[in-house]
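hi! just following up on the protien thing from before. the input was this:
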Amino acid sequence: MRVRDHERRGLDADQTVAQPGRLSRLAELVLLYIATVINERQTDRVDDFIAPGYRGHGFHADREALRSFLTWQAETAPEWVIDVQDVVAERDRVAVRAVASGTRAERAPGEPYDTPSFQRVEWITIYRIESDLISEAWVVSRTLDVP
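and the predicted 3d structure came back as:
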């Protein structure tokens, strides 16, 4: 994952985010979750990152509902990718601002588009980490106009 415009953190434009000593262990955990489970579509690894008692807010889901959603997304939007823009970590929280994009075949499970639809979604998620697992997440997102 790459960040842009982060001179204030001392990173070059093409430098990867997750460098040892640059981010907290918790931030690295969240970035690894995004890279592995979402961008690399390894949905069988959800349990490696998400706590059994996980609760999602904004995107309301427990761990099983999140796993189902991520599996559906991997199948119906195989090139969907998250481009992390900013990461901030403090105490047990990690905030991520990102843009996700890709072509979707379905708007929801079993509801196909007439033709596949390219989408860009800007979002901010605050993750709470407990015992080295993501235990809670608050999501705010908006779909961006695509020219």
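The first strand starts at residue 50 and ends at 57.
Residues 18 and 28 are 6 Å apart (CA to CA).
cheers
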